Amino acid sequence: MNAGRATRPGAIPDPAGGRGKARVEAPMQQPSLGGDVGGRTRPGGGDRMPDLKRTPLHALHARLGARMVEFAGWDMPVQYGLGVMKEHRHTRAAAGLFDVGHMGQVILRGDGAARALEKLVPADIEGLAEGRQRYALFTDERGGILDDLMVANRGDHLFLVVNAARADHDIAHLRDGLPGISVEQVPSRALVALQGPEAEPALAALVKGVEAMRFMDSETFHFDGAELWVSRSGYTGEDGFEISLPSDRAEAFATALLSDERVEAVGLGARDSLRLEAGLPLYGHDIGADTTPAEARLGWSIGKARRTARPDFRGADAILGDAPARLRVGLSPEGRAPIREGADLFAEEDAASPVGRVTSGCFGPTVGVPVAMGLVDSRHASPGTRLFGEVRGRRLPAAVASLPFVPANFKR
Questions:
Q1: For the chain, how are helix, strand and coil distributed in percent, rounded to 5?
Q2: In a domain, 10, yes or no
């Protein structure tokens, strides 16, 4: 990955073969990336597409030889010299560094901000302790999911991280729905994620004290005079951290992390396969405005108090109503061929009408077989149920599987 840096004695073995960090080399071919990324790739950010936004780490991606793609209006790295497969495996074995600066960062200030936000999300925000973070959903009057987000209680304000493709919508949604509450977008801060079993010691070597954090803690630290907003969370199923920091300090911080032999830069391609193995939904694919929290099996994100004492969030009647007619499930295709997003699912090989569709699918590098998720008629959603995905006119068998495919390794 980090071109020009020699492998040091004692470097960790590359989990995909070899020893230490790899040199930057152009990949043999563009990987198949499922629904997480789109657009054409460009080595090192060259031949830039017009009007794409750039994160504060864009110049670093170019120096690392990243292949860039358009994603949600941003110029983003899809992979580096290791390639998607090795980046994925390195994250599971050691630590992967992700640029997630395209995500929207938002601060809410004002008396009653937590109670006000509960009008827009089913999560228990009033019960969120200072220094803690919680997963939440924006919902509409019909119970559909408008976005998923993270909410941290930072004492005198709430800190939200929303999806890049929905950031403008979410900020307008907040301003419209929270009169009297200050809604401040934070464009001056970068955001990175360090994920994997070696994430803690790698970050602790630079930032003392993070090793004491628990899963979903949110605290402030410092690096070389820069204020870091650190949460112990991520989108891979592995232990790790998400770190917000001033944009003008992001490159120095990322470079310091990458100087550690345990850390490799990882792009959107492996981010997609990691989150899919971990059973984590992607907005706009596995969940959306046509999906309720119950259908998405995200009912655990609805606080107990919100079901009883405070069921006044948007879409509460629909969300807390009857059992859903369909459910998000894992899918294990038979054989080696992935069944990708958009494929119809049938209960029988010769059935005329589908009972669901695949919402995400790829090859799972950790498990060594294809994995997928889909929305399926609840009558066909039990683990072990055999279904057939239609791929280019052929019906390929797949079994409904329990999620996740790879157990979570969060630090409790």
A1: 20, 30, 50
A2: no
The tokens describing 66, both together, are: 């990243």
Measured between alpha carbons, how far is residue 360 from residues 207, 296, 373, 389 in Å? 36, 13, 5, 12
Specify the pTM. Answer: 0.89
Tell me the pLDDT tens digit for each residue of 325-342: 999 999 999 999 999 999
**Is the confidence at residue 7, as pLDDT, over 50?**
no
Q: Is residue 12 part of a domain?
A: no
Indicate whether 160 and 36 sit together in one domain: yes
Is residue 314 located within the same domain as residue 410? no
pLDDT band at 412 (very low <50, low <70, confident <90, very high): confident
Nearest Cα neighbor of 357 from 321, 385, 326 is 326
Angle 392-395-400 (CA atoms, 0-180°, nearest 5)? Answer: 120
CATH of the domain at 352: 2.40.30.110
Tokens of 324: 């859903």
Instruction: Retrieve residue 264's tokens.
Output: 């490799």
Average pLDDT over residues 99-121: 98
